[in-house]
Design a protein that fits this description.
heterodimer; A: mainly beta; 4-stranded antiparallel beta sheet; 11 strands; 0% helix; globular; B: mainly beta; 7-stranded mixed beta sheet
Chain lengths: 116, 107
């Protein structure tokens, strides 16, 4: 069974940084692209970042490009999201997801609140 | 980006009632659409993939259909455990884009 457990969320001031982590189990982590998806309060879901199996290719929407960095450690079956220069509009629940013809496994999410 | 328009945004239904939720895409995506169920405080769960295929372990009262750019999720007879949020996702082209979601509540 796919298990994804996010951590690292919290309250952070605008302009500061935060790093999210996701521990994966129940599948061969290194065989899958992985992604981060977020949901702002009372809003729909938004894709945030994707990383290839080896980590050599990463993809971002314009809304976070240059500020967020996705990375992975296949030896530890872990996914990361480094978020810099945070803005109030980054306030959301962030989900780690296994990407395979859509998202075929999700974590429960971690809340990030950007506020002074 | 492909736009996905989901309706209704909320739905009141009675136990045993047939429920239908729709997603319409801004361009043709063949059958590259998934449906997900999400209960409060829980991870989203894959319900239907490739528009019509029921995910292993999900109840057979859930089904998906599509015609052209219109996709429907149907619950044939609503059960209490079906009360949740439902959303669709197109994975035909990057970036993957989501419907806005439907909040299903008991009447």
């Amino acid at each position: 069974e796919v298990q994804l457990v996010e951590s690292g969320g919290g309250l952070v001031q605008p302009g500061r940084s935060l790093k999210l982590s996701c521990a994966a189990s129940g599948f061969t982590f290194s065989n899958y692209y992985m992604a981060w998806v977020r949901q702002a309060p009372k809003k729909g879901l938004e894709w945030v970042a994707t990383i290839s199996t080896s980590g050599s290719r990463t993809y971002y929407p314009d809304s976070v490009k240059g500020r967020f960095t996705i990375s992975r450690d296949n030896a530890k079956s872990s996914l990361y999201l480094q978020m810099n220069s945070l803005k109030s509009e980054d306030t959301a629940t962030y989900y780690c997801a296994r990407q395979y013809y859509g998202y075929t496994g999700w974590g429960q999410g971690v809340m990030v609140t950007v506020s002074s | 980006d492909i736009q996905v328009t989901q309706s209704p945004s909320s739905l009141l239904a009675s136990l045993g009632e047939r429920v239908t939720i729709t997603c319409q895409t801004s361009q043709s995506i063949s059958n590259n659409l998934n449906w997900y169920q999400q209960k409060p405080g829980q991870a989203p769960m894959l319900l239907i993939y490739y528009a019509t295929s029921l995910q292993t372990g999900m109840p057979s009262r859930f089904s998906g259909q599509y015609s052209g750019r219109s996709f429907t999720l149907t619950i044939t007879s609503l059960e209490p455990e079906d009360i949740a949020n439902y959303f669709c996702l197109q994975h035909y082209s990057a970036p993957n884009t989501f419907g806005a979601g439907t909040k299903l509540e008991l009447k």
